């Protein structure tokens, strides 16, 4: 389930999708439905109304003099109430065996991009449209509906949310964090990103105080790191040793992040032990709550261009829109080992 749009573009076929398609990504999402429609229909369902009434409300709102995202939400509230009204159980509601049919809003990606495994489904975002605001009570209603929808679905899902949490805490991001059990926070080895994480932890703490989420941080991932050696750099990585410059920055930032983790101990799956010294706290955080993801180089460029996950690539030459990419078997195995390390933690 995506918010920003770059992962949607990759899954649908990368840059080559828009080169070869007669429709833009935003038009494709508009036709097939996306995250915004899913969230609003889930809200309407949980309030006890048929999605057809929601569409009628949307049509009326779009034809009014005050059309647009805000008027759409306002009309929804005027028609359906603030989320505390009586529920029509025959139309959904939040009781009994009724659940929002979330699977109807998911695109089986292999139907569009044959390079993607058949068990991957996507709620799309074009990345270009504005996000619609939700009140706190509305967010809680959607979170409740989505959690139940996935928990009671006929098939078993592992749900991943790709959010804009690194930019700002939009209502869509808050809903995603509300549904999630665990959080993975990617960051670059820079002090700018460290300050971003400090802000993130403050926002997450407040969300837990408001009863919006029970999610905890499982991992901080140092992303797009330049590699010096393909060998362990313990306790942070089992597979790669960064350059000396990156090592220095990561060691310092991990010690600072350990201080943040100690301050917000309830927010981490692996909290800092009580009475741990600064050195012990840093070692504990480095071993249990951080890891390194190497830069993907040419392989990553080919993946973004052609929409082929590197895990599904074969060694050889791939022809993109303007260049050829030479993908080696050795590099593919190194990348897979790095991602397996991440998967083992999750």
Helix proportion of residues, in percent? Answer: 40-55%
Low-confidence stretches: 61-72, 80-96
N-end to C-end Cα span:
18 Å
> What percentage of the residues does DSSP assign to strands (E)?
5-15%
Largest sheet, in brief, is: 3 strands, parallel
Q: List the domain count as a whole number.
A: 3
Shape: flat
Enumerate the strands of the largest sheet in spatial order, edge to edge or round the barrel: 3-4-7
Can you walk through the features of this model?
This protein has a three-stranded parallel sheet with strand order 3-4-7, sandwiched between helices. 46% of the residues lie in helices and 11% in strands. The chain is flat and about 55 Å long. The chain has three domains: 1-180, no CATH class; 181-295; 296-346, no CATH class. It is built from 13 helices and nine strands. The longest helix has 20 residues, at 244-263. With 346 residues, the chain is mostly helical.
List keywords for this structure.
346 residues; mainly alpha; three-stranded parallel beta sheet; 13 helices; 9 strands; 46% helix; flat; P-loop_NTPase
């Amino acid at each position: 389930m995506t918010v920003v749009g770059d992962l949607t573009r990759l899954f649908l076929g990368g840059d080559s999708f828009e080169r070869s398609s007669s429709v833009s990504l935003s038009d494709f999402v508009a036709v097939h439905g996306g995250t915004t429609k899913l969230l609003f229909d889930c809200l309407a369902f949980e309030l006890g109304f048929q999605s057809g009434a929601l569409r009628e409300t949307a049509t009326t709102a779009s034809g009014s003099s005050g059309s647009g995202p805000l008027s759409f939400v306002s009309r929804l509230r005027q028609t359906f109430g603030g989320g505390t009204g009586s529920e029509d159980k025959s139309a959904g509601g939040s009781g009994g065996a009724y659940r929002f049919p979330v699977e109807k809003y998911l695109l089986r990606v292999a139907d569009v991009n044959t390079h993607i495994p058949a068990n991957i489904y996507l709620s799309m975002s074009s990345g270009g449209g504005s996000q619609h605001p939700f009140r706190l009570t509305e967010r809680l209603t959607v979170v409740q509906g989505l959690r139940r929808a996935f928990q009671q679905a006929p098939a078993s899902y592992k749900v991943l949310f790709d959010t804009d949490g690194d930019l700002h805490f939009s209502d869509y991001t808050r809903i995603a964090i509300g549904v999630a059990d665990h959080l993975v926070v990617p960051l670059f080895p820079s002090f700018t990103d460290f300050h971003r994480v400090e802000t993130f932890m403050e926002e997450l703490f407040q969300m837990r105080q408001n009863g919006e989420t029970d999610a905890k941080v499982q991992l901080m991932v140092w992303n797009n790191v330049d590699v010096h050696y393909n060998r362990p750099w313990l306790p942070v990585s089992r597979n790669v040793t960064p350059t000396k410059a990156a090592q220095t920055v990561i060691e310092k930032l991990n010690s600072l992040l350990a201080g943040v983790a100690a301050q917000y101990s309830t927010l981490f799956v692996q909290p800092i032990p009580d009475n741990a010294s600064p050195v012990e706290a840093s070692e504990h955080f480095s071993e249990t709550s951080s890891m390194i993801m190497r830069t993907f180089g040419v392989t990553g460029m080919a993946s973004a261009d052609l929409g082929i996950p590197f895990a599904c690539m074969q060694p050889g030459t791939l022809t993109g829109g303007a260049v050829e990419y030479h993908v080696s078997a050795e590099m593919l195995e190194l990348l897979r080992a790095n991602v397996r390390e991440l998967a083992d933690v999750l």
